[in-house]
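I would like you to help me understand the sequence and structure tokens below and explain how sequence relates to structure.
___
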Amino acid sequence: MTGCDTQPSMRNPEISSPTNERIKRLVRLRERTQRDEEGVFLVEGDRLIDRARAAGRAPEEIYVTPGHPHQDHPNSTIVEQAVLDKASYRHRSEGIIAVFAQFSIGLSQIELGETPLILIAESVEKPGNVGAMLRTADGAGCTALISTGSGTDVFNPNAIRASTGALFSVPYTHASLIELAQWLVDNKIALVVASPGAETDFWNTDMRGSLAILVGAEDHGPSGEAARLAGRTVAIPMSGISDSLNVSVSAALLVFEAKRQRAELSP
């Protein structure tokens, strides 16, 4: 290798069998029960892993193919390409899979600032929607994403991929609806709930103050309890045969309307 060559030298795989116990564990970590039991999750691909590390998240383990730039990382294990493909949730790895510790903050640890804008996901189960909501929260500069209810899994591989790494930049926590309601009251944050049956369209609602926007599960929307706790319920006007939007699309419309209204206050 010449002095100008920046490519890492090729090293022989340390794991070359899909029946290796460490590979079988990576396969098991695709399932939430196993991830939660161990308190870890998987991240695939250089871009997402680099974004995790840039946010201060250090991988506990790294599995790479021979010649990968991260092969000399202290926690790296070199794996034959076909074997790493078996471990990938998409069955086609990008040459690197890393194991990270799960993380979350408490409600009291959220730095609210002067005029917080919180996005709340109530029982949103589909990983792609969860990831898209994280991406929206990041793009709109939301203070935090909070999940409530059941089923939301931000550490699902599809959620992480759909977030394009926003999981590592957006403060996240989970709380019961009762805990969340009290926290909102204590911090003087108004709650707006998206509901198809609301009489007020979302663009006719003042969203300039301290605000939390709640969107509900994909199949039935917000719970009755969430609607009762809301200071305001708002609707997204619909036409045609569709009676609802994808939950992540609804969240994006509401959050960016709040962002637009707040921009009008700026000098």
